[in-house]
Amino acid sequence: MERGAQALIKALLAALVFGGLVLAFHPDYRGAVRAAWRGAPDESPVWAANRLYYPMVGLPAGARDADAK
Known about the structure:
4 helices
């Protein structure tokens, strides 16, 4: 049981390190973190790229605000 817990901790730490590296080296993901921190995820470069890539998926205007309440 201890070996499984150690393996899980190692996997979580590796994910944390690799996630930090992605944030450190990829400007779009840094922008996404900044936008989320400001509370405006729709200003994220990743959000904008997804909006262009998936034009058929959309929410009616104001749906985001209605969910936040």
